[in-house]
Amino acid sequence: MRAQFVLSEIGVGLRRNLTMTFAVIVSVALSLALFGGSLLMSDQVNTMKGYWYDKVNVSVFLCNKSDAESDPNCAKGAVTDDQKNQIKTDLDKMGVVEKVTYESQDQAYKHYKEQFGDSPLASSLTPDQMQESYRIKLKDPQKYQVIATAFDGRDGVQSVQDQKGILDNLFGLLNGMNWAARAVMALMLVVALMLIVNTVRVSAFSRRRETGIMRLVGASGFYIQAPFIMEAAVAGLIGGTVACGFLVVARYFIIDHGLALSEKLNLINFIGWDAVLTKLPLILATSLLMPALAAFFALRKYLKV
């Protein structure tokens, strides 16, 4: 009988404050969708880091005849065969190096034509203007500085370049966007909490006569508070369910179908469904507990029992 009464009171409260309840549902849904999206963005960035950092190469570019005339690093002339052999030998001895690949001028010219064949400069370049290089795969991409220290400024070496620096800029941008999403999410959570507190306050005020009668007949504090707390929890849970729906639909249409980024951007290793599904229970739990706790503390102020 008591459970039936509490449930009936929840229904009454939700109907009485339908507009505010709807506002709570929408704000909770948006804030938790952003919360889940920021978590998935972090997973995506970490997945991309693991995928791309594993493919990072350090390139040791060697001096050619053109560099000898224009580049101060190659003032002693183009690289000699002895210098190339010594550089290769030193690279093979280094413990941080996993694999060394040599790229000749002809190979560099071929790769350039494949990637930038439409560029106006492509027609004016010749193979002898391209640079020979050693492409070095490191056991730990963080150890780039070891290679740079050993070979930068060495005779026959024009420059040492690390692809990780380019990726760091990309991941820095993605992380910045992720933190911006989290800031908006935090703002939306504050708005949702304020709406929950205000809804509970209005609901408690509109039923002050009923709660006064319940006090007179000896009802416990929890028995009086329970309908208000459960109203907030139900509204929050509906919002959390909507947020979960947003994430599932977004993953389906953005990555798998619709935009189909997984097919159009083959170079990106996108997160799988397991990453999405593992976030849904956390979102639902948050959507249930956050409004319930907010209502509980609001009732301590607005409903003295």
Automatic annotation (TrEMBL):
Pfam family, one: FtsX_ECD
First-listed, main subcellular location of the protein, grouped into a coarse class: membrane
Span of domain ABC3 transporter permease C-terminal: 183-301
Superkingdom of origin organism: Bacteria
UniProt keywords, alphabetically: Cell cycle, Cell division, Cell membrane, Membrane, Transmembrane, Transmembrane helix
Membrane topology qualifier: Multi-pass membrane protein
Gene3D superfamilies: 3.30.70.3040
Compartment(s): Cell membrane
Sequence ranges assigned to domain FtsX extracellular in this UniProt record: 56-160
Entry's transmembrane regions: 21-41, 179-200, 221-254, 280-299
Entry-linked InterPro entries: ABC3_permease_C (IPR003838), FtsX (IPR004513), FtsX_actino (IPR047929), FtsX_ECD (IPR040690)
NCBIfam families (alphabetical): FtsX_actino (NF038346)
Function, in words: Part of the ABC transporter FtsEX involved in cellular division.
Record note on quaternary structure: Forms a membrane-associated complex with FtsE.
Family stated for the protein in its record: Belongs to the ABC-4 integral membrane protein family. FtsX subfamily.
Protein name (record): Cell division protein FtsX
Organism: Streptomyces purpurascens
Gene name, Swiss-Prot/TrEMBL: ftsX
